[in-house]
Amino acid sequence: MDELRRRFTIDDRLGRFSKALKSLHEMGPNAFEETRRYIMQKELYTKALDLYKYDQESLMVDTPFGGGERTLLIAGSGNHARLCNFSLRSQSIP
After folding, report:
1. How far apart are CA 94 and CA 91, in angstroms?
2. What string of DSSP letters covers 73-91?
3. 50-67, pLDDT tens digit by residue?
4. Beta-strand relationship, 59-61 and 80-87
5. Distance between CA 57 and CA 75 in Å, rounded?
6. Distance CA 63, CA 55 (A)
7. Which of 2, 51, 85, 89 is 20 to 30 A off residue 27, Cα-Cα?
8. In the chain, what is the straight-line distance between the N-terminal and C-terminal CA atoms, in Å?
9. Taking 70 as the threshold, does the pLDDT of residue 94 lie above it?
10. DSSP string across the chain
11. What is the CA radius of gyration of the chain?
12. pLDDT value at position 91?
């Protein structure tokens, strides 16, 4: 088991979810989908904003906020990171 995966596993089992998320994020693009699921499962949206604010990728996460809405975590190029709500009824989501 590589060092980042080991740290993730230990932090997750000890309930240090923010630290575990950081280790997942550091694993890079190969762990992107796992990272996205972990953010939603542990509701680490604020921590995700901090981690992804300098990344080139956007991250789609489902949140418990509002009925029929999803939240898109927009991050990139060091400019900013923010949460944007939009209705599932009015837009198609890939």
Report:
1. 10
2. EEEETTTEEEEEEEETTTS
3. 887 766 665 666 555 555
4. unpaired
5. 7
6. 21
7. 85
8. 33
9. no
10. --HHHHHHHHHHHTT-HHHHHHHHHHT-GGGHHHHHHHHHHHT-HHHHHHHHTT-SS-EEE--SSSTTEEEEEEEETTTEEEEEEEETTTS---
11. 14
12. 39
Angle of helix 17-26 relative to helix 32-42, nearest 10 degrees, comes to: 170
Q: Token pair for residue 63?
A: 């949140």
**Contacting residues for 53 by C-beta, under 8 A, at least 6 apart:** 75, 78, 80, 81
Helix (H) or strand (E) segment spanning residue 28:
none
In whole angstroms, give the CA distance from residue 30 to residue 48.
17
The answer to whether 82 touches 50, Cβ cutoff 8 Å, is no
- For residue 40 the two structure tokens come to 């939603």
In this predicted model, what pLDDT tens digit does every residue of 11-24 receive, in sequence order?
A: 999 999 999 999 99
Work out the number of other CB atoms within 10 angstroms of the CB of residue 79.
9
